[in-house]
Write a structure and sequence with these properties.
The chain has 160 residues and is mainly α. The chain has five helices and no strands. It has one domain. It is elongated, with a radius of gyration of 18 Å.
Length: 160
């Protein structure tokens, strides 16, 4: 695996970085740009429909990048031999962060789907509760974790 990594290092690192940027950047754009425009929609039902749809699109867009991020992380840990280095704690801490983010993403996907189902059944309160949890807690949590992981990745790359 190390030989493959060394032969393809630039593309693997690029795919890793761009995947993190798209995942975290997508969440930032959704939370701090799109969310503000959703608040301008006067009809609560239409607002929730648009939020559920936008989250669905975001999740479809970022999911392949999330998988790419995880796969390239494995190549990088093995390729740089981080497990055997003085930086192993940082590398594993970073991977724990991305793993927690992945788990959080899976829960968000489930809650969005449940919220949309409740919305289609006419349960506005239930739908709002599902979607609000995503926007107020889960997305900001993943943004903070993602920025932390990017910082640790920058620290690692500057020391390799």
């Amino acid at each position: 695996m190390q030989e493959f990594f060394l032969e393809n290092k630039v593309i693997i690192v690029f795919l890793h970085v761009i995947s993190g940027v798209i995942w975290v950047g997508g969440m930032i754009a959704m939370r701090y740009a799109s969310h503000q425009s959703f608040l301008k929609i006067e009809s609560p039902h239409k607002r929730l429909e648009h939020i559920a749809y936008a989250l669905k699109r975001l999740f479809y867009i970022v999911f392949p990048f999330v998988i790419t991020l995880m796969v390239t992380a494995i190549f990088m840990v093995k390729g740089y031999r981080l497990s055997e280095s003085d930086f192993s704690v940082y590398a594993y801490f970073k991977e724990v962060i991305w793993s927690v983010m992945f788990l959080n993403l899976m829960i968000m996907i489930y809650l969005r789907s449940k919220g949309e189902m409740l919305l289609n059944k006419g349960d506005m309160v239930g739908a709002k509760n599902q979607l609000e949890l995503i926007g107020k807690i889960m997305v900001p949590l993943n943004i903070g974790l993602g920025l932390t992981a990017i910082f640790f990745g920058t620290y690692l790359s500057s020391n390799l």
